[in-house]
Amino acid sequence: MSIKVKEISKNYGKQVALDKVSFEIESGQVVGFLGPNGAGKSTMMKILTGYLPPDGGEAYVCGQKVESEKTAFRSKIGYLPEHNPLYPEMYIREYLRLVAGFYKLKNKKQRVEEVVEMTGLVPEVSKKIGALSKGYRQRVGLAQALIHDPEVLILDEPTSGLDPNQLDEIRNLITHISTNKTVMLSTHIMQEVEAICNRVIIIHNGKLVADGSTSDIKKMSKGAGQQVLIQFSHKIKPEEISALPFVASVSEIEAEQFLVASSVDDDIRPLLFKVAVENNWTLLTLSEQMRSVENIFRELTT
């Protein structure tokens, strides 16, 4: 078990930031840690890295208890905070050697060159950090988080403020890094979650409201059930579909094509196929439409 959180609570005066939150993250998982602004994401990440003590509950990283007054467990963690703290007047190698010194690495120079290569910093390595684009500064932040080869990476908004090209570069980098590490990242970019995460944890008002694989999360809804896209080779009246007992609603997308919402828990595709055969309706498309993580996020946090 890479991360274990047991009933963690944290208050700022009368404001409840985290309210008895519990979850476990297995080794090798890439977990999207989601929530609206103020939901408690950064607070949880600071607790897991030992920067903040919880008011209640316990947290473990790689089997070691997280205690803010102790530092031994931190060698297991690579942390990129939301506001990437860098020294703009330092050169990239100079800064990474400084960080490597904190961990008392014996092969500092070799390890710096390895992470420079790994994070794609080679083209800019001769520059001072202050002269880098935001995308490259994020790469430096990832490099410092990786310098000691941690088992767990905790990344707080690693792609915040990046343009689409920079975002894609950092996303690919995180995907590459995650092949042999446990990654927990927070983000507001839902496409990023669907692209690189195999699990999603959502918190709202300090409480855990969803936890599951990305496919399981997409199936969660407080509204209509299953949605199926259906298309025929000829004109069909929407009323003929909406009259079916297992259909909650029908939306006509274009001629002969409809989005059908289910009113039952079962998969309605076999039922729709049977009705089509009975009525001699020639089917061109019959496919389940998965909701996006963004849709479910909005339903659970509003």
Would you kindly provide a brief summary of this structure?
The chain has 302 residues and is an alpha/beta fold. It is built from 10 helices and 14 strands. It has 2 domains: 3-218, P-loop containing nucleotide triphosphate hydrolases (Rossmann fold), CATH 3.40.50; 227-301, Alpha-Beta Plaits (2-Layer Sandwich), CATH 3.30.70.
Describe this structure in words.
The chain has 302 residues and is an alpha/beta fold. It is 31% helix and 28% strand. The chain has a six-stranded mixed beta sheet, sandwiched between helices. Strands 2-1-4-5 form a four-stranded antiparallel beta sheet, covered by helices on one side. A four-stranded antiparallel beta sheet has the order 12-13-11-14. It starts with a strand and ends with a helix. The mean pLDDT is 89.
Give the name of the CATH architecture of the largest domain: 3-Layer(aba) Sandwich
CATH homolog superfamily of the largest domain:
P-loop containing nucleotide triphosphate hydrolases
Mean pLDDT: 89
The low-confidence parts are: none
β-strand amount: 25-35%
- Our count of helices gives 10
Outline the fold blueprint.
Layout: E1 3-12, E2 15-25, E3 30-34, H1 41-48, E4 56-61, E5 64-65, E6 77-80, H2 92-102, H3 108-118, H4 134-146, E7 152-156, H5 164-177, E8 182-186, H6 190-196, E9 199-204, E10 207-212, H7 214-218, E11 227-232, H8 238-242, E12 247-254, E13 257-262, H9 269-278, E14 283-288, H10 293-301
Parallel strand pairs: 3-8, 3-9, 6-7, 7-8
Antiparallel strand pairs: 1-2, 1-4, 4-5, 9-10, 11-13, 11-14, 12-13
Helix pairs in contact: 2-3, 3-4, 4-5
